[in-house]
Amino acid sequence: MEIEVEQRFDVGLRLFANYTYTNAKIKKNEAKPSTEGKKIIQAPENMFNAGAEVEKYPFSASLTGRYVSKRYGNDENLDTVNGVYSSYDPYFVADIKISYKLTKNATISLSVDNIFDRDYWGYYKAPGRSWFGEVTLRF
Hints:
This protein has 139 residues and is mainly beta. The protein has one domain. 0% of the residues lie in helices and 50% in strands. The chain contains no helices and nine strands. It has a seven-stranded antiparallel beta sheet with strand order 1-2-3-4-5-6-9, with no helix packed on it. Strands 7-8 form a two-stranded antiparallel sheet. A hairpin with a 4-residue loop joins strand 5 and strand 6.
């Protein structure tokens, strides 16, 4: 199940949010009955995104937060410990991006992913705060 809402305002502001619920379970598995009723691996039950974008020519900025619930890497869902190598932790991270339009066809931007430097594992330890510079040319 998915639900999404978005609201645009005349002042160049857009707010948005979406939520996904996934009830992915193994119904029958004759080859390995111990997995029946367990959650499918790599399928989070809950995901949520929310954010805001604002544009005031020539500047624009966005702030987005995203949440992903616990996932399993083991078909019997035995990997319940979080914060260790090979775990799939639930996490919430926020990202920000600021852009400046130099010309009609050229934009520069700076973005920071995981601005709060949140530690979590997605089998391997996820990268911490990351900075990116970007130049976009449109032809």
